[in-house]
Amino acid sequence: MTEQIQSDIPQQSMQDQKMKEAYFTASQGQLVWARFKKQRAAMIAATVLLVLIISGILAPFLSPYDPTIAGRDKDYLNGAPNIPMFCDKNGCSLRPFLHTIERERSLKTNFRWVEKVNEDKRRYIQFFVTGSDYKILGFIPGNIHLFGIDDGFVHLFGTDASGKDIFSRTLHAIWTSLQVGSLGVFIAFVLALVIGGVSGYYGGWIDSVLQMLTDAVRTIPAIPLFMAIAAFIPQEWTAEMRFFFISLILGLIGWPTLARRVRTHLLTERNQEYVLAAQLCGASSSHVIRRHLLPSFTSYIIVDLVISFPYMVLSETALSFIGLGLKDPVNSLGVMLQNVTSADVLLNYQWYFIPVIFFITLVMAFVFVGDGLRDAADPYSDNKK
User: Is the pTM of this model over 0.70?
Assistant: First the structure.
């Protein structure tokens, strides 16, 4: 027994030594990932976010219909969600199905059309059906959809006033909002690195001028700016032009915060010994900033980008919600939220609020992931708890 205990001690010490070696030899990204995995809320949010992003990318395949075509199901305008079932009074089935909805006129309703559910007729859900043509990511063609129905239409989230499938619109709207946010974040990211890097590395009068520019951009009021943009955009602009213009504006007003952080970091790091050594070796200013200063700040830049994503999505949604951003036939979360502003929808068509749930989930997932990355990138976060 004593010999076994003594033999276990060296093995345990060797494992501890290997763990210490792995810790001290790990890269910054590996350390951030190791701390990030310990946060359960952030990992759950990352999983949800990944599912939403994949759903947005594969929206043409996952959705049964083209979301831009109105009046596809003229007999089911403002229709309630169809919930597939496996059992009814006639027994159970391995394949999900829906009951047939029939319309008839009645004396009780002054010969108005009345919808009646015929539980004796089933419409079975089919998978991998051929439908409308699409292109995933704009260049991968296809016409196979994940599911459909053998007779009529299926609307998991119901339909709107024009007969469009809300489920299809929601998936496409997620991808559109993510695209606007990605383009806006990319523009803000490039401007912040250039302006913040130059300002923090050179200092002096260059820093003063660039900081004046940064303060000027930060003081621009958002609502009057958006109203001026809405008055400037011509009505004949295509959806693509409007999409690019809104992303450009969001990027041009979203860079000052990250630029300030990059500047602050470079001001403190530019006099370090490794920077002086690179300068003495003849490295140019752009090389020092790109290869030495910014890599030491990479984790914080990534965290800032993730945190700025929901604000870009919120800005696009707010613009489209008040009618200053994207408009039909473009599907975005802001465009879909325009439909929930009337009292009639609140009282009679509650399924219009389903996209709101996806919008809140998307924003909250970004927030939790950003908070988790921020704590993981902070080497002193463990000591604060």
Answer: yes
